[in-house]
Write a structure and sequence with these properties.
248 residues, alpha/beta, Rossmann fold, 11 helices, 5 strands, globular
């Protein structure tokens, strides 16, 4: 991949999309992971003075906060830390007062509140500034629906959406993203010890090979295609009930 050319293309693309929307800059969430790190550096290149990152800890590991600040300080990206723990706990207490689930179901219910709270925070900031919300999902995640609906998928533009994970890694090394971020296991930070690959049930290497080259072990392909099928609703607009002409 010609990293220099790809970076310039993405910077130009982002500037065009923001201009088309009548906006003046972008807001994005930075998690301490590689995808948001790459997206943040591209955003800074596109809008040196109209780009803000929000670090949004919500029962998060302290390392994620530290890694985010290391990245943002290195590239001179303006940012704010907005603690969401209290809002999250209040919501969980309120919701579970009328409906509570235990086990894995309950953990997923509670965990999916976190990206939805972050989405709400990002849109509050973007609307106040006349900015767009910049997404940080890569093609590998989008393909299998590895996201929270109306959470991290709730954005205005996806700058990494045509890059599989290995290509994001390649761009990260080219851009000089700190190695402490490049080398950490990918995680949505939904709960302690959670990793993307364990939750998906496939590795990014296997997923990228399937997406780019349509190859893989039969059981891996079956797993990926099941993920794609079950998450199709995440990549589509909600269906609209059309009224037949003879009923009008």
């Amino acid at each position: 991949m010609n990293c220099e050319a790809v970076v310039q293309h993405l910077v130009n693309w982002l500037q065009e999309k923001v201009r088309e929307a009548g906006a003046s800059g972008v807001v994005l969430g930075v998690s301490g992971g590689i995808d948001s790190a790459v997206a943040a550096v591209l955003a800074k290149k596109a809008f040196p003075d109209n780009c803000i990152a929000l670090v949004l800890p919500c029962e998060s590991h302290i390392d994620d906060l530290v890694h985010s600040q290391v990245l943002l300080d290195k590239f001179g990206i303006a940012y704010r830390v907005v603690e969401l723990d209290n809002a999250y706990q209040l919501l969980v207490t309120q919701f579970e007062s009328f409906l509570k689930k235990d086990g894995l179901k309950g953990r997923l219910l509670r965990s999916n509140l976190k990206p939805r709270l972050r989405m709400t925070t990002l849109y509050y900031s973007a609307q106040a500034r006349g900015y767009l919300v910049l997404g940080t999902s890569n093609k590998s995640e989008i393909t299998v629906g590895y996201s929270t609906k109306h959470g991290d998928s709730g954005v205005d533009v996806q700058i990494l959406g045509d890059l599989v994970k290995r290509e994001v890694l390649e761009l990260a090394r080219y851009l000089g993203i700190p190695s402490i971020i490049v080398n950490k296991p990918p995680s949505g930070g939904l709960w302690e010890g959670q990793t993307d690959e364990e939750e998906m049930g496939v590795s990014y290497r296997e997923l990228d090979d399937y997406i780019r080259y349509q190859k893989g072990e039969p059981e891996i392909i079956a797993r990926i295609e099941k993920l794609i099928e079950s998450s199709a609703h995440k990549r589509q607009m909600p269906p609209v009930a059309l009224i037949p002409r003879d009923l009008r």
